[in-house]
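Isocitrate lyase
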Amino acid sequence: MTYSTDISQTEDLIRNHNGAWDGISGESVARMRAQNRFRTGLDIARYTAKIMRKDMDAYDADPANYTQSLGCWHGFIGQQKLISIKKHFGTTKGRYLYLSGWMVAALRSEFGPLPDQSMHEKTSVPALIEELYTFLKQADARELGMMFRDLDAARDKGDQVSAAKIQNAIDNYETHVVPIIADIDAGFGNAEATYLLAKKMIEAGACALQIENQVSDEKQCGHQDGKVTVPHEDFLAKIRACRYAFMEMGVEDGIIVARTDSLGAGLTKQIAYVREEGDIADQYNSYLDCEEVDPANLGHGDVLISRDGKLMKPKRLPSNLYQFRAGTGEDRCVLDCINSLQNGADLLWIETEKPHIGQIGAMVDRIREVIPNAKLVYNNSPSFNWTLNFRQQVYDAWTESGKDVSAYDRAKLMSVDYDSSELAAEADERIRTFQKDAAAQAGIFHHLITLPTYHTAALSTDNLAREYFGEQGMLGYVKNVQREEIRQGIACVRHQNMSGSDVGDDHKEYFAGEAALKAGGAHNTMNQFVA
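Predicted structure tokens:
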């Protein structure tokens, strides 16, 4: 419905109440509706799921259409990210938000800072989803409110051309609301617990849930040691739980991202139950590290399995965990991914130990032999030392091609001494084009950085504290923060406006007319920042 159509229909409704509603402005109602386009989280989930599905189809047609996101740990951070994207690029197309379980644990738990081990309150995840969308909707309300003020000003001047142009922009307004890929960890319990949490996350607005194949009560960060995976049937039960939640909530095209941690997980808590030779459980067990045993020489308490007619003893640790054979991680990843896609997942996530296109692409090629349109969500993780990794990749490529690398020490390539070198320049170029190249060569549909705003908050706060509490004093804030906000056009320099003060003034005027006590008058110090 267009802005003008909504005004007309609302005014008809007001007239039908025999004067009792004459204090209500049809245009004001239309403005409030435009500023609150999404009434519920489910409205958001349905809207954003369609965006993601369309983007996935576009990527299948051309891998140059990959998508991106940054992890955000607070609604304000997500809001400022989307405002920045609209300012610099004119559209939010292809840009999402990522909700990192790591950052929820580290920054949002009532227990205080926690490691990424699913110890934080499960309800903190849907609470952050709701918070993120509250701030994104507020960004819409703020921007549209400024457009309405410009429309009123153009009308007051009798400038019909400008008024028509502004009204057209209002009718075709692009929202700040974008898809969120939300981390549900390993499901926070059994499949029923996963289903209940998934419903809460979907109700809050999540159209995409990312779930991993680790043991829920032993879950570790993807870049830590000690990861333990579950048999495929256990994981598939949780994938189905997520799909049931989507379907129950009326988000039939919701997206499930199946993450495998098998590359770095050398342990399993269970021996899978085999129904027949060669089934998925039998394949899972085939990777167990076993030794053949003599039936006449069994140890007390030994756990045994049969394999190819032989009696085998899986290696069991004092923790009661079973060990996989070394070097089987990639094979297990490929099996995980194929099985997940064949059983209801939409996208894959392979957690790797380094950002190496060749490694990722080799696994995706094997997956695509079975599932031709398989595609990944990939963690461009801050846990990788990107500088060192890519300098070493260039060093190795040069060595393989016979190029002289005698001027470089491979183990010390992080050194600032190499920053101006040819090798460093080539490595930086590979980093710059990593997302585009990996989208084309390794099947990566969505690139995200899990915890970037954790690091930017720490870095910017450190820089401000060093200056403000040092000799620079107030100049440390003015020169490095406020002056840069003004010169770079950062909307938050007018923080009262950003927090919704002007939107509130508009509402006061709707409700009380000339009697409204508004905050944005001549004595508001924010007027010092009006361009």
